[in-house]
Structure formats: structure tokens, C-alpha cells
Specification:
Layout (H helix, E strand, L loop, with lengths): L7 H17 L4 H12 L8 H11 L3 H18 L7 H6 L7 H10 L4 H13 L3 H9 L9 H20 L1
Helix pairs in contact: 1-4, 2-3, 2-9, 3-9, 4-6, 6-9, 7-9, 8-9
Bound molecules: magnesium ion.
The site of magnesium ion has 5 residues, from helix 9.
């Protein structure tokens, strides 16, 4: 049987799988929620990290988001374990600045909640707050590739921030 299906139940199963994949790459949803809070906390006084986590959970239930996570984290992992051919492997391992496909893939996540997400994503990508800085630093290790992970985490936080903005208008 195929490992994927059109069923709603499958989104829940895939949610567990992508959350587990991120945990194995050292990122918990709570840290992403903290980043979302950093993006929106000042603007919305009644916001809490728990509410942010609910929105992060909502984001990782979306199939487009799950597919982007599956794809990006797999490429990071394959590059690390030397299963990617050159010249791509070096571009991924070195987080080559002109590669750009990592940001483009992450836009598939941001896209789900519209234009506010884009603004937040640009902001996160530039300032690299909190968990993003840690992921970036870790990615500089010779044996580590976080080229897709930083953008994916930033995009999930931005999408959740956008979901919150729609809710609290
Ligand atoms: Mg990147």
C-alpha cells in the first residue's frame, strides 16, 4: 500500500511524522511557537505562547506544509549522509547564498496564509531571531546541513503568525 493517501486521517499521521522529523533535527514545535510569539506578541496583548502553539499545530496539519517539510528535511539529511551528487551537495552543505531553492520551498508554507506571512518570513530570514540563529549556527558544522531547516522553521512560525493576524485582525 502507498505510504500516503487522500484521507484526512492521513494528514494527522503525516503531522506526527513531520513533527518527529523536526524533533530529530533538534526543533520542537514549542520553539517555533516562541518565534511566532516574538513576531506577534507585541501587537496582540492577549496572545500567549500556548495560543501560538495552537496556530503552529494548525499549520503543520496542512498538506502543502507537510510536503514542504518532508522534502526539505530529507534533502538536508541526504546531503549530510553524502547521498546527493555534486555540485548540489556542496551547495547544500555550504548553505551557498545564491542557491535560493530553500527559500522558494519555504514559500510553499508561507503561501497557505497569504501576504502577511510573506512579510514575517522576510523579517525572520533577515534578522534570524531565536531558534533560527541556533539552527544556522549548528548548520555551520562540517558534518551538518540545515540549509532547508532554517527556512522551513521560519516559514512555519511566519504562517502561524499570519494565521493569528487573520484571527485577531
Ligand atoms: Mg536556508
Amino acid at each position: 500500500m502507498a505510504e500516503y493517501s487522500e484521507e484526512r486521517l492521513d494528514d494527522v499521521r503525516t503531522r506526527d511524522r513531520v513533527v518527529d522529523m523536526m524533533a530529530r533535527r533538534g526543533v520542537e514545535l514549542e520553539e517555533i511557537a516562541a518565534l511566532t510569539y516574538a513576531l506577534q506578541g507585541e501587537r496582540i496583548p492577549e496572545l500567549t505562547e500556548a495560543i501560538c502553539l495552537e496556530h503552529v499545530e494548525r499549520v503543520v496539519m496542512k498538506r502543502e506544509v507537510q510536503n514542504a517539510i518532508l522534502t526539505g528535511l530529507e534533502l538536508d539529511r541526504l546531503a549530510e549522509s553524502n547521498h546527493v551528487n555534486e555540485p548540489l551537495r556542496s551547495m547544500l552543505m555550504d548553505d551557498y547564498g545564491l542557491y535560493g531553492v530553500d527559500e522558494v520551498l519555504a514559500l510553499a508554507i508561507v503561501n497557505v496564509y497569504g501576504s502577511i506571512g510573506f512579510t514575517n518570513f522576510g523579517y525572520v530570514d533577515k534578522l534570524k531571531p531565536g531558534v533560527i540563529a541556533r539552527i544556522d549556527e549548528e548548520g555551520k558544522r562540517e558534518d551538518r546541513c540545515n540549509t532547508f531547516l532554517d527556512d522551513i522553521v521560519g516559514a512555519i512560525a511566519s504562517a502561524a503568525a499570519s494565521s493569528i493576524a487573520h484571527r485577531y485582525g
